[in-house]
Amino acid sequence: MLEVILKGHDKYYGVSDVVRMFCGVPEELKDEGKVIAPDGPDITLVNELSKDGRSVTYTEGRSYASEGEILEPGREIKRSLYMALSDITSKRLPWGCLTGIRPTLVACEVQSPKELEEKYFVRPDKALLAFETSREEQHILSKVPEESLCIYVGIPFCPSRCAYCSFVSSDISCHMDRLVNYEAALEREISLVAPAVKRPLSAIYVGGGTPTVLGEKEFASLLDRIYKEFKITPGCEVTIEAGRPDTITDGKLEAMREHGITRICINPQTMRSETLQKLGRIHTAEEAVRVYKKACDMGFDLINMDLIAGLPHENADEHVRSTAKLIELAPANITVHTLYKKRRAAMSRDTVMDLEMARGKLDECVAESYRLLKEAGYHPYYMYRQKDTGHGLENTGFAKGDTGSLYNVAMMSDCRDVLSFGAGGMSKRCFAQEGEAVKHRVERCPTIKDALNYIERVEEMAEKKISFFGM
Q: Which of 23, 218, 256, 386 has the largest count of CB atoms under 10 Å?
């Protein structure tokens, strides 16, 4: 069992983040001043932060500390602990000692990818990815004025639950009676809050779950409500996460076209039908292609398609083949996610992490997918990471030309305000810090997760958001 004793600081969260990358899920024993990992090597480490701000991690006969620039305490303690665990386990992780979900924010602080390698032990290919993506994120963010507002509308229902999913979404096949009532409550909340919104809108994102799980009548009614209540100018980006191809009908595409929406998401996740069936998705890869081509024929020219690398029931090479098939379709955006362990998902952490690489070398296959995308004219425009992701990898959105999603970048940056409607949504206000270009103080306002409670308390949720934004 690994034990990490904290000395001179109480940054349990940061220590746990580093331990998790090497040794699995840790436990914080704050009364004893330590973090333990039952699945880690049998060794005790001391992670100390000295008065001069330098961190050193040591055990009998060995100590680890960087000789370079002293970082802020949270990063400093992670760096020395990473050095120790990397040496002890003989592992070098793709993102080095960076554990946060937005490495591109760190990349904004440096002048070259080499600095990320030297300060944080980031692997050269990932350092370049973060550096390039951070610049593109800032370019896109410049199109979203700080005084503007982004809006999220959430429909937390899906036609079936995927084995890897633990979102608040419900399998609608078990709750058909809730969907109509939920959509009505969503319209009610929008109608209550929208009149108080005086700020210009930069982006609206209708997500889920699967928004197109709504019936054609309810789906069209929701779009009508959004366009009636909000002042949507030609410069406002509107995205519909159509998601599951089996929920996209001609009628729903027509409703989107009538409202002038051109940006939609059609997410196959893999282009191997056998994998989709085993994961609980009730559509085929061929159906995804059919729906995509239908949407193109109807004038939807900004389509994103998602893939997930590291899925069980297929080897890593299948992900590369899926990427190649999407490149042949040539959507404007392709987003490559890496499978990660969601807290309430049916899939186990061991299955997700695949540490024995039973499904192939995921790291190499993701790198090959990135190479194919860049060769085809795509470039990374936003990127983020999640805990317990297979082999410590990341999620990256690729775009052709200047087609990157404003909402994706604004939401992930924590630099722009988001007003969220629907169960499980998270509204947030971002306050610029003096002297900081990319770091903001963020205040959050959550909405009830349970759909039934949301329906019953929708007026309360609306009042809460009006108060939160001071409208």
A: 256
